[in-house]
């Protein structure tokens, strides 16, 4: 018997601004109501996304918010029943009413673990993310630990670094590569990384390498 999962777009919790005047606008609470049906396929020993899904492997990777190297035996992957319909799937709004005058905007949906890139209020692409996890503790090893939290609010892309290196993680000396990094608040960045299929960062927004490369080139650097 096939198991059916229904994916619904939900209210976006935060978004990042690339236009200076956008910071002055009120936060939007808007979501489209779209349904897509999926089945579950279990990963067997020796499976890869390509072996399991052929040319559709990127679609499965995107829907499951998981990098190919993170799949493992016993894992259940969501698989669309209709591959053509799956191309229309987006866990973020396809349009942001009232934002047609905003040239570029990045919209982050923490609950759906997804970002959307918009031009003049219209969605041009979306991708999966991995944000902070309460399972992970932050803070320096020598100081009191605290729960990692990805900042919520409206921010500007204030700095871009194609080959950024973390000065904090892994502790104690840092050194973790953060390709195509874009700073949006404090020491929090949007950057390329491996996605495990769930929130797993220390507070930054991890996205697929190809998405990070594209977003880095597309986004304008604006200083708050």
Summarize the structure.
The protein has 224 residues and is mostly beta strands.
Number of strands: 13
Q: What proportion strand?
A: 25-35%
Give the total of domains. Answer: 1
Just name the CATH architecture: Beta Barrel
Q: Mind telling me the CATH class?
A: Mainly Beta
Please, how many helices?
4
Radius of gyration, Cα only, in angstroms? Answer: 18 Å
> Low-confidence segments, ≥5 residues, pLDDT <50?
1-33
- For the report, how would you describe the main beta sheet? 8 strands, mixed
Description:
There is one protein chain. The chain is mostly beta strands and 224 residues long. The chain has a single domain (1-34, 90-224), classed as L,D-transpeptidase catalytic domain-like (Beta Barrel), CATH 2.40.440.10. The chain contains four helices and 13 strands. An eight-stranded mixed β-sheet has the order 2-5-6-7-13-12-11-10, with helices on one face. A three-stranded antiparallel β-sheet has the order 1-3-4. A two-stranded antiparallel ribbon has the order 8-9. The longest helix has 10 residues, at 209-218.
